[in-house]
Structures are given as structure tokens and as C-alpha cells.
Design a protein that fits this description.
It is found in: Endoplasmic reticulum. The protein is of the alpha/beta class. The protein folds into 2 domains: 253 residues, NAD(P)-binding Rossmann-like Domain (Rossmann fold, 3-Layer(aba) Sandwich); 198 residues, NAD(P)-binding Rossmann-like Domain (Rossmann fold). It is built from 16 helices and 11 strands. The strands form 2 sheets. Strands 3-2-1-4-5-6-7 form a 7-stranded parallel β-sheet, with helices on both faces. Helix 11 runs parallel beside helix 12 and helix 12 runs parallel beside helix 13. The longest helix has 34 residues. It is globular, with a radius of gyration of 24 Å.
Amino acid sequence: MSTLTFMELITENRLLLLTALIVTWISFKLSQLLLIYLKYTVGVWCFSKRKTLRQAGEWAVVTGASSGIGQAYAEELAKEGLNVMLISNDEKQLSSVADQITNTYNVQTRIVVADFTKNDVYEIIRPAVDQLSTIACLVNNVGMVLPFELFAGEVHSPNEESIKNIIHCNILSTVIMTSIILPKMLTQKGPNPGIINIASYTALKVAPYLTIYPSTKAFIIQFSRCLAAEKYRKNVIVQTLYPLFVSTNLTGLRKATYFTPSAKVYAKSALDMFGVEQQTTGYFPHELKAFVYNLMPTSLWNDTYDIIRPAIDQLSTIACLVNNVGMGLPLELFTGEIGSPNQASIQNIIRCNILSTVMMTSIILPKMLTQKGSNPGIINIASYSALRTTPYLTVYSSTKAFIIQFCKCLAAEKYKKNVIIQILCPLTIYTSMTKHEKPSYFNPSAKLFVHSALNMYGVVQQTTGYILHEYKAYLFDLLPTSLWILLTYARVNARKKYV
């Protein structure tokens, strides 16, 4: 009787209930807007570490410093009394920027001419950095974008060289510059040196036709999160910026507006946010735009290979590509407490985990699209570690974050086609890569996992592929990030005998 009465009350007052739900939702969103405003006002006033950077060290290192956001950051850091090392591939422009900063702010400058698309660039950078007394700040800003690319060649299929260049410039530069400078920072006395990594808001949304670029930036975001978790007991601040459009050469937007600021306006605001928030757009109007965009459904936002390519060309038709090849590093900690990855190992894991997926897709997808028949597929193997902050697996989980974003954007490019793009994000599977784990229901054999995962082909775009992994992931998703990090540390301590 009481249940019936309750249901009658709901029925009679459904309009009132709906109104209450709408008001609650609007109130919640307005409170989020208020919180954003407070971060950029009260938060900056109370928590910004911008003014303490000079106490952290004498030098700032800025990559991509010859123009745009990099140049603007160099000027803002010089305002704080920091000497600046500027790194870029344009010697003439670098010299001009260095002279301007020296004359305007009365600080020292040094330039390093370096092309980040080349492998040997760090042989030039490393000795130059070693000559600096102390380093207060590293700004990993250098980056490049490809022309609009569509992997079927309808707009512009990226070739092997351009794919390698963007991965070297956008990903490898950030990881290796961090591995060079962070250990030096940790030997210094003084408060809060910082590493500022420039990502992009495109890494947080599905961005077709920019598939590779936002995927590289997804790597940067995950890398920064994991690095910050590795260093949470240290005093190094790791900040990720994911701006929307800024008026720079890279975006091709010449006219600055309130929502598309000049690099100078953006860098001033972003540096004010240093120490306030670990991950931010860095600019209040960008926060407002991101807030609106986040309300929208995704549908509205819409040399080894020289050997492989001829072998692929000999195949009649291709039903499925499984991008599975991958490698991990030994438990890595960028201070060297366990095993700092060296330059060669960093390059190897990025080539193996990232470049292989992009190149194999660029070789096979155009062939798939010329075929008749239904639903060929590309299955890319990522990892659940890319969905959480996972210290000690910093580089590995970041490569898998790249894969997830790459798949999402690729699927959006091909949404009118019949190619199925699937992402698998498994937890631990008993393989040679995870030999420290014992096989069990939750750690299945590779054979058992693949049987289950292939059954999920066409069912859902992103999945763990194994029902017990789904349950495990569901439970893990309930854990706050801080507890997840502590759990990761506990697992690492248990695994040290295998290191």
C-alpha cells in the first residue's frame, strides 16, 4: 500500500520533480563556473608560485622559444628575474628574441639551435644544460602539427617521415628534456622548481582530421599526471596546460580576440596559474569555452615499414589489423631511484608502442577502404593504466593514452565508413611482459583474454575485452586518485625483487 502511495505521489508531482532535478543540475553547473572564477582570482592571489620561481633557481629552459607561446613564456620568466635558455631550430629568430629579452629585462640569455625532429639533437642540448648553475623552470613547449590529415588520403595522408617528425617533436622532446633536467632540479636547494608541459584541449575531445596531433597531446597529459604522482613527495611542481586557440604561427590565427588571446596574454595568465592547479587551460576565457564544450556530446564536436609495405601490398583483401606490438620499461622513476630510462630506451618504447600503430594504420586503412564487403576492423591494444594516474609506468601508460586518443579521432574520421575501430584497455594479463603476476581469473592467460576480446568486436568501441577486467575496472574507478596512487606504490614495492 505504501509503495502504491509513493508511486502515486511521484506521478502527481512529476513536473515538480523534473523542475527540481533541472534546478539542481543548473545549480551544480553554476557552482562549477564560480569555482573556475575563484581559481583565477582568489586562487592566483593565494597559491600562485610564480613569484617564488627566482628562489628555486637562476635559469629557465624553454623549448620552441623562437616564437609564439614559447617566446612569450621566455619573456614572462625573464620578468621574474630568471635567466633564460632558449631552444629552437630557427637561429636567426632565436638570436633576435634573446637580444630583445636581454635588453628589456636585464637578464642573461643563451640559445641552443636544435631541430627536435632529429635523433641526435640531445647531444647538443645535454652539455648546454649541464653548464647551467641551477634550473627553476622547464617549459616543454616545442611542437608541430600536420596539415589536415585523413588516413584514407581524402584530404592528406601523412607519410612516414611526417609521422616520425611529429612524434619526435611533440612526444620525444618532452620526455627526454624532462629526463635531462629533472634529476638536476632534485639536487637543488630552494622551493618549488617547475616543469610546465604544453598540451592541447584537442587531447580531451575527439578531434578528427587532427588525429595524430591530439594523440601526441594526450600522451603529454598522461605523462604529466604520472610524473607528478612519482614526484608527489618532492617539491617539483609538474603542470599541464591544455589551451584552446591562441594566436600563433602554429594555429595560423593572426587576429587576437578575447577568446583567442595573443601568445603574450596567454603566457602571462598561464604563468600566474603555476602552483594553483596541476592541469588547466591557463586562461580564464578558455576555461569558459571548455566548460561549454564539455556540455556538448561527442557527436557535435566532430624503414621497418619499407619491409612491411610490399608484404601488405601482396595481400588480396584485409579483414582485420591488430596493433598489438608493444614494450614496457623496467619500473622507471625519473630521479633514478629505481631506474631512470635513458634516451635509447625512451626512443625505443615510443617507436614500438606509438609509431608502429600509426604507421601500420596508414599502410593498411587505405587498402581496407577500397575493398567491398562489410566491416573490416582495426583493433588497437591500449591499457587500463592509460585511464588512471599510474606512477612508475609513466612513459608506458602515456604511450597507451596516445593510442586511446588516436583511436577515438580515427573512428570519428571514418564514422561514415564501414571500418570498425576498437580500443582494448585490458588490465593485467599473464604474458611474458607480466611474468611477475600469477595467472588467475582476474589475470587470464593471453589465449583466454583474446577469445573474450574478439567476441566483443563490434559490440563496443572501447572495452577491457574481458568481463572480469570490467568488474575490476569498475571497482578501481570508484577509488579516488590518491588511493589509487598509494595502491600503485604498494604493488611496486611488492615487485622490486623483479627489478
